[in-house]
Amino acid sequence: MSVTLALAAGVLVHAGDQGNDGRNKPRFTFALWGDAMYTTADFGKLPALIADINASKAAFSIYDGDIKSGGSKCTDDVYGRAIDYFNAFENPMMYVAGDNEWTDCHRINNGGYNNLERLRYLRTQMFSSPNSFGQRTLPLEHQGELGQIYSENTRWAYGDVVFVTLNIPGSNNNRVNGPDCTRSSARTAGDCQDDNDEYAARDLANIDFLKSSFAMAKANGALGLVVVMQADPSFDLPETEDVNERTCVRPFNSQCVANGDPKTAGYDGYTNFLNALMAETSAFAGHVLLVHGDTHFFKVDQPLVSQANLIPNLTRVQTFGSPNINWVQVTVEPKDRALFTMQPMIVQ
Length: 348
Prior knowledge:
The chain has 348 residues and is α/β, with parallel strands linked by helices. The chain has one domain (28-233, 270-345): 4-Layer Sandwich (Purple Acid Phosphatase, chain A, domain 2). The protein has helices spanning 40-56, 77-86, 115-126, 170-173, 189-219, 245-248, 271-282, and strands at residues 28-33, 61-63, 93-95, 141-142, 154-158, 161-165, 224-228, 287-292, 299-301, 304-306, 309-310, 314-318, 327-332, 340-345. Strands 4-5-6-7-8-12-9 form a seven-stranded mixed β-sheet, with helices on one face. Helix 5 (189-219) runs parallel beside helix 7. The longest helix has 31 residues, at 189-219.
């Protein structure tokens, strides 16, 4: 069974269950999880997690990336296996691409695949339908044609909130620097140039989809916007005077040095996106929730742009990950001044 949803400019359809739309039931919950398909032990815990989310009656679930471990092979069956688990959810289940299933596939211990070939395959397998996963589905708006470039960027509306998912993975967003190119990798210099070209084009596409999502939220008077990606972008700008953690969080060799050193210039693959997110959030009257996985620790905070400049309407939630196969329940309460409330759900 499908829930109808429209995303035309200026028209926000408040999707709901069995005729009860978001305005009749303004308070709703949704589930966040990710980084949960790494080991045999993880897979043994998944039935309990799925049952727990199903029992919660969350309106839908979002998986924020990594359907395999960073050291396992990127074989075709990985994607089909994940789909089977996603379709075990009673309510709609949305998936966001992670680095382990494409960005890192060049690694020798991942099978030495071509990153971009795995990305193309992922799109054909995971984003060839206009609908979400799950036994009940939601139709999604895709940035690109189904199964093609940027089809993995999706959005939908529920209640008074707009949701957007973006392909922004770990491993520096597929931006390759210096010796990172061939370290423990089957990549050639040409492959790394292709990766950097892909990063540059996708970075622009992500920012464009982000901006149009904010524009849609404003046009429809949405109270909030949820942005979901996989990567932990190491959000906080420098907490120390001489080192910028934004450029040094994923260093290579000795090139992570004092802030401003030319050797670190342009290293980070997230800065352009974060700059756009900051600008759009600052110009938005509603609340913005940034969701990501990647580093496997549950966290809720209001990340800093600088020590003196907090963006009061931006909250970040980082989800659980292997070996902690748990989920986060987000409650949307329009009467609450914070709109979003996060609760860790520990699965026994």
